[in-house]
Design a protein that fits this description.
Mean pLDDT: 95
Strand content: 15-25%
Number of helices: 5
Bound molecules: S-adenosylmethionine
CATH topology: Rossmann fold
Order of helices and strands: HEHEHEEHEHEE
Distance between the termini: 45 Å
CATH class: Alpha Beta
Shape: globular
Structural class: alpha/beta
Helix content: 25-40%
Low-confidence stretches: none
Largest sheet: 7 strands, mixed
CATH superfamily: Vaccinia Virus protein VP39
Radius of gyration: 16 Å
CATH architecture: 3-Layer(aba) Sandwich
Strand order of the largest sheet: 3-2-1-4-5-7-6
């Protein structure tokens, strides 16, 4: 096993491998924290952008949009719109402006700051919680929402704590929530919440 692909060691690979089990070619997928575009690229590939699949990717920083566009183009997605890809500069709490309820099979959040850029621009509990509340209502039945958290900074610790409380209180008949934590690593190692929606909300 190569460490790069060791799913327990490499959290981003773990997330994408779980998420891809919920996504078929032709689906709509959403990246709520586009960043440098690595998650967006994986999502575009698994949903078959260019073969009927659609990717909506959001970030508040222009640098994220430029970086993601370049990465997608380098990987064969030349005309983004023609390939069903929308890169949107907006906060993820407005996700419901861009996707319809029941449309996305996967919605991915990778919280924190944009690597290589200003570490003071981080996701914040004030927008993360409302965004995730919307995401779990928008995702299709038996679809998945994943949220990767980082506790190396104060805002990240608060996000993880508040999210944990909110997700633990979700009705068990409508949602199933799993939490992966690296229990023998540094306290700052990433953690992941996976939420699947079992039934339509009434
Ligand atoms: C850890 S990075 C994401 C990494 C990315 N998924 C990748 O594959 O490279 C977190 C991103 O969240 C973005 N962000 C912060 N607040 C946001 C918000 N309210 N809405 C959308 N994105 C936000 C940051 O600008 C940053 O680019």
């Amino acid at each position: 096993m190569n460490e790069e692909y060791n799913l327990i060691v490499k959290t981003t690979a773990l997330v994408m491998n779980i998420v891809k089990e919920y996504v078929n070619i032709g689906d709509t997928v959403v990246d709520c924290t586009m960043g440098n575009g690595y998650d967006s690229l994986s999502l575009a590939q698994m949903a078959g952008c260019g073969k009927g699949g659609k990717l909506v990717a959001m970030d508040i920083q222009t640098a994220a949009l430029w970086g993601t566009q370049a990465l997608l183009e380098e990987n064969g997605f030349k005309e983004l719109e023609d390939n069903g890809i929308r890169l949107i500069r907006d906060s993820h709490e407005n996700i419901d402006k861009y996707v319809k309820a029941g449309e996305p099979s996967a919605i991915v959040f990778n919280l924190g700051f944009l690597p290589g850029h200003d570490k003071k621009i981080v996701t914040s509990v004030r927008s993360t919680i409302p965004a995730i509340r919307k995401a779990i209502e928008l995702v299709r039945e038996n679809g998945i929402v994943s949220v990767t958290t980082y506790t190396g900074h104060a805002e990240g610790r608060e996000e993880k704590e508040r999210l944990s409380e909110m997700l633990a209180a979700l009705p068990s008949k409508k949602y199933h929530v799993a939490h992966v934590d690296m229990i023998n690593q540094k306290k700052t190692a990433p953690g992941v919440f996976f939420i699947t929606r079992k039934k339509k909300l009434v």
